[in-house]
Specification:
Layout (H helix, E strand, L loop, with lengths): L5 H9 L8 H16 L26 H18 L3 E9 L7 E12 L2 E12 L4 E5 L1
Antiparallel strand pairs: 1-2, 2-3, 3-4
Amino acid sequence: MSNERLLKRIKQWNMRQVPAADHNVYIESVLADLSMLYNTQHGTALIDDAYGLPDFTNIFNNLTPPDIDMMQRAIMNTTNRFEPRLKSVTVNHEDRKNEFGLLRFTVSAQLMYLDGLSPLNYSVLLNGDGSVAIEVK
């Protein structure tokens, strides 16, 4: 199994570069793909209408615990469906009162790398403007 997605490998092959089997490069590739996935809204990607996350911007006005549960499930389901390099994905909400207009979710997963699994932990930060950031722990 390769460290990069198919289109990235084709691009590198066309440029006559050999992709490095570096674990950090691999993690950066996964996180970049996750950032793209999380910053895409449902219905805007040509490959699949379900690609990305639902539009959460209106939820921030009257946020309730069921809304947070729905967001948590959406992050987990989207990650499981569109990022096959991650296994055993769990998502938890971090309640931080000092971060106004921001929701933080902690993601723990097992990253498939070469012939094994390694832990990968990161935070998904949902901003009130609809943007999503990933913060590595």
